[in-house]
Structures are given as structure tokens and as C-alpha cells.
Amino acid sequence: MKVSSFLYFAGFGMETILFRRKKPILGTVIVTDKCNLQCRHCSVNNITAVVHPFHQIQEEMRQLYDMGVRILFFCGGETFLWKDGDRGLRDLVIEAKRMGFLIVNVVTNGTFPLDLPEADLILLSLDGDRERHNAIRGDTYDTIMDNIEKATADNICFYMAVNRINQDAIRHVCLTAKRMSNVRAVSFNFHTPYPDTRDLALSREEKAACCETIAQMMGEGAPVFNLKSAFPYLIDNSFPTPCHQCVVIENGKVSICGRCIEVPGLCEQCGYFFVAEYTLLFRGNIKIMLEMLKTYLKYI
User: 278 Cβ partners below 8 Å, 6+ apart?
Assistant: First the structure.
């Protein structure tokens, strides 16, 4: 991370904590909900299958920037399906950097070639070993592994949503991240149970066991891009929600924290690690501050 970026984020954090501000710093643009997969745990794919045009996404990026967002994510659906004439996902990342976003990340299912060195991180969904991943996402594991090996930069971060199918594969994903040269880290979430996927939700005891495994892997040197200090809050869902420092924009509509905010009762069952980490950070949790500083400087 550049020194100038670090100083900007440090200043934002201090202002937010001291003055209890709700200004956002992290924003997500949904470029399309079109996806080439039908994953068992996903409730937001192919609802419209509309690919939003470049000029619209450009305006949405400007809107987020003017709100104060400096960490930008491009999400789907599947982001690598985004096209507008000759423009592709790389053009969006380059445009975001030109606008002044300090960190620009992309979320993908990994089934397309990973030629995007301009992104700070490519968050790639890997949901276990071959058997468990394929049970959730279809026969895609080997394709993803091949794409990672051929990636043009070492900016990949595994993005695992832990549920009842794959909860025993955390160690495997950590070890895979550790051994693959193009993978920088692994980031975990617990499954957030939309009404049609409640059967995949973990119990409190299962969450505790998963956190114990993640902590053990961190102790063994696995490159985990999460904060151990937040684990107790995630196990008990005791962190404050929603996260006002995070926003999502989809087809012109801005939502605080995430698209799931309008689903009754879902905030209380939130499994997003970053939501817990950010809300605790901006409430002034000292342990979270120190661990986030160390972790972000290491992996971004």
C-alpha cells in the first residue's frame, strides 16, 4: 500500500471514530447479475441478467467517489462476463484508478482467464476441495486451478463462503492458498442465509469450530486475510449492523452495507467477516485497529 493511501485511510478512520461519522469508505458496483454458474448458496444471480453499460457504471463510480468511497469493488453475477462493445472488465478497473480510487478489487468465480494485473486484488471464490467446491458450484474446480496457475499476476485472494457443505474444507483452502504462487491470501465469510438457502447456515457451535480451525491455520502461517479479534463477534453475531462505511450500488440504487439489507432479519444473521471487522474498527475497537493495520499492510 502506498504511504499516501495509508495516511488517507488513517485520517478517515480517526475522523469516523472521533466524530461518529457514517460516511462510506468502501463501495461496490454491481456490473451485472448475469452469471455462468448456478451456485447452491447464491440468491442474487441471473435475476435480471442485465449487463449494465459502461457510461452507467462510470456514473455510478463517480457517485461513489463523490460520497467519499476510496476502496472500490466490482461484483456480479460474474464480473468477467461484463462487456460493452470493445470494453471489458480491465477497462473498468483502469477507469476506477484514473478517477482516483486508491484500492480497486474484483470479485470473480474464477472460471475465466485471470489476466487482470491492474486490480489490487482479485477475490476468487473457492469453496473447498474439489469434491465440496464442485458440490456447491458445479464441475469448475479444475478449470479454476488451471486459471490460477496461468494468471498474469500474484494478486489473487481466495474468497470462501463457509457453509454446512464445505465447513470441513477450511484447512484445505488455506493450504492451497499457501502453496500457490499467484495466490496472496484467503478471506473467509460465513454463509448469510437468504430465505431460499437457510439449510446451509451454520450453527453457533459450527461457527466456533470453523473459527478455531482458521485461527489454527493462521498460527501455522497460512495467509489469512481476516482478523482473529473479530471471531468472537462473528460466532455470536454480536457485531453492530449495518456497516455505514460500506455501500453497494446496483443499477442506480444505493444500499447501505449490502444488497441483503432489505431482507427482513438477515442483518442479524450476517456472515460477512468484513462487516464485523469494519463496524468494530469504526467503533474504536483497539484490537481490531492494530490487527487490521498489520493485515492490510501485509496483503494489499
Answer: 26, 243, 245, 246
Residue 97's contacts (CB-CB under 8 Å, 6 or more residues apart) are 104, 118
All three cell numbers of 82 = 461484463
Predicted TM-score (pTM) of the model is 0.95
CATH number at residue 88: 3.20.20.70
Q: Which of 11, 57, 7, 8 is nearest to 32 (CA)?
A: 57
Cell 467503533: give the residue.
283
Which residue carries 468511497 as its cell? Answer: 69
Q: Which residue has the cell 460477512?
A: 272
CB 25 within 8 A of CB 9: yes
Highest mean pLDDT among 31-45, 174-188, 280-294: 174-188
| Residue 166: domain span | 3-299
| Helical axes 273-281 vs 286-299, angle rounded to 10° | 120
Return the amino acid letter for 270.
C
Distance CA 15, CA 250 (A): 28
